[in-house]
Amino acid sequence: MTTVLHSGVHAAVAPAPSHRVDPTLDLEAQIAKLKRALNAVILAHYYQEEDIQEIADFVGDSLGLSQQAAKTQADVIVFCGVHFMAETAKILNPRKHVLLPDLDAGCSLADRCPAEAFAAWLKQYPGHTVISYVNCSAAVKALSDIICTSSNAVDVVNSVPRDTPIVFAPDRHLGKWVMKQTGRDLALWPGFCVVHEQFSHRRIAKLKFEHPDALFIAHPECEEAVLGLADHIGSTSSLVSYVQKSPRSKFIVATEAGILHSMRKVRPDAELIPAVPSSGCNCALCPYMRLNTLEKVYLCMRDRAPAIDVPEGTRVRALRAVQRMLDISAGKTAPQAG
Ligand code: 13P
Ligand code: SF4
User: What is the pTM of this model?
Assistant: First the structure.
């Protein structure tokens, strides 16, 4: 059965598996057993729950996870992250089985950049190189010339000759930050991340005032005014590695709170203060990433579903753009902590 999700994404889905799991089951042991039986690799993003990060073979940022997916010898990739990440793994590995614990784990950036609207918008920009942030659907990747992540967006933009105009999609905040870093003018699709856009200048300034000895670190999906307060800006891997290597021991962290688990592992002595979003809750959680649970990881491996599928024509066009990014970043692995 095929269903269409997240702005035209096509996904092969088996009949919904039962989400009831025997509560006495040792999930970690069962997952380890299934991993051997399937010859599977488990890849997890820093925003996943702690128990998922703990059973993963690799925890990383979008670039690191794509690089792992590109080189894995496993037959099955269990992708503990969101849809566009698993889809990128499938684009790179058409013959492998790529499993996503919850098929509804989307992304606000990807969802707000439908391929049809993007194609129509691009018509205003003939002669432009189209650079798309990896947080987009395979169909949008297929309309792009090069993909980037927050780790390599500056390098990717700098790889384009200076006299060639560039379209950058779908994150306007990352795009603005890249414009500042490169001194280039980019035509920006007006997308944003619902998690990072909640950090406000006023609240961060207050936190900094309350903790004058803390360094403030932020993901480039935050808005410009917030980034203006930051001591360090970078991808999730870059933020973890900055905390690991810093001689300082107090950090205010403006990104999804799942990352604090990896930061605590590399700097158990450090005080980590999650930046408070404007919504009133105490820490920022991505509603999509949080759909994955350890139970669903077990179930997707047991049932070999839900699996990701990408129509071949789209995949081949998207692969060209993903491969260009991997080539630009070859030899430059995402900073690895721990
Ligand atoms: P990273 O590539 O920095 O891990 O970012 C992914 C993401 O979705 C941030 O919200
Ligand atoms: Fe998408 Fe934002 Fe969630 Fe990252 S944190 S997956 S950009 S919605």
Answer: 0.92
